[in-house]
Amino acid sequence: MSEPRLRWAALADRIDSATPAGRDRAVDGLRAAAILGVVLGHWLVTALTTADGGLSGSSPLTHMPWLAPVSWVFQTLAVFFLVGGHVAAQGYASARARGVTYGTWVGRRLHRLFRPVAAILTLWALVAAGMLLGGVGTDTVRTLVQLVLSPLWFLLVYAALTAATPLVARLSPWWPLAVVAGVDFGRFVLGWPEWTGWVDVAAGWLVPFTLGAAWSRGAFARRGPALLLLGAGSVATAALILWAGYPASMVGVPGASVSNLNPPTLAAVAFGLAQCGLALTLRDPLARALRRPAAWAAVALVNLSAMTLFLWHQTAMMAVTALGLLAPADLPGLHTVPDSVGWTAARLLWLPVFAAALAVCWAAFRTYEQGGRAERSRTTAGPAALPRARRAPAQEITHV
């Protein structure tokens, strides 16, 4: 076995042995899959072209709507909110049992959530100012900044739902689902103003969040309820697309009159129910797969830097795109209009390059998410709290 493989195997064994025996590894596996799904989805359906002189945003879904099923695979936010609701409800119940106040509990959670945001906002404020002073067109700067800022809406909603955990942890998911259905009926049938749809930003993501809270209470101990969610959600999604006129894409498409994601529609919520049902159905096989040290180590390391990966993945893509402008001609799959199968094939070849750029961002900025040694010592307990020199990633595993 080669030296890198030996080192990885040794690290995986240390992380595996440092993980508490009672940890539900499937929860971490689902969170990692959700984050990676969002990252890959954005890299596949977001394009920056030079067709208008500067860099402007486009999407292959605009030119090739038959690619809409790609969004069904990579639009995984419902799974992230499912896991978030499960972890928040479980964590708050545990905090109360230990006598921890609500203020202390929510402060720690939100601090870790938003600490890496400050780093990316500071850097991009400087980059945007530098580009404008350097003569870069305002449309190009606006396009780039929008790509950076667009993921932050998710964090704001996630933070709000996390803070509201004591109020919504026992709320039935059917109530926010009814709100989404009512708002959609008002918008699309009764002609309500478009701004009313933004009520669904909270209500739509509250559905999987409350499902996660129910999961923490044992509501999905049997496979039956999860299979029912999967089946009912799938049937409802198909019916809404085929007969109610909802878009097939589960992400926003530039130029489309209706977006399933901004704000979330009833179709997006129904699709999220199906995703949550599938995730809950697969959690036992996933837990068994993650008993292997190598698989678990990969998932654990993704979870330790989940917000860093989420926040910086668009920056990594834009950095590669900008460096590509140094080439004598537009590079296929990077600067060209995404209107052909050839573009899609070329984009797939760029994914490892984007991943390498993201690895650089991770190395530079992961400390803003993981905090310093003092904080790790304060938030880590059990067998993982061993000397940092021996097992740095393993030391933090109880906190992911």
Q: Helix fraction? A: 55-70%
Give the terminus-to-terminus CA distance. Answer: 30 Å
Oligomer: single chain
Low-pLDDT ranges: 376-400
Largest sheet: 2 strands, antiparallel
What form results from the Cα inertia axes?
globular
Element order, helices and strands?
HHEEHHHHHHHHHHHHHHHHH
Q: How many independent structural domains?
A: 2
Number of helices: 19
- Report the radius of gyration as a whole number of Å: 22 Å
Strand content: under 5%
Structural class: mainly alpha
- Could you report the average pLDDT, rounded to the nearest whole number? 89
Molecular structure report:
It is built from 19 helices and two strands. Residues 376-400 have low confidence and may be disordered. It is globular, with a radius of gyration of 22 Å. The chain is mainly alpha-helical and 400 residues long. Strands 1-2 form a two-stranded antiparallel ribbon. It has two domains: 26-365, no CATH class; 369-400, no CATH class. The longest helix has 32 residues, at 102-133. Helix 2 (25-45) runs antiparallel to helix 5 (77-97), helix 5 crosses helix 11 and helix 10 (174-188) runs antiparallel to helix 11 (199-216).
Descriptors:
single chain, 400 residues, mainly alpha, two-stranded antiparallel ribbon, 19 helices, 69% helix, globular, disordered C terminus
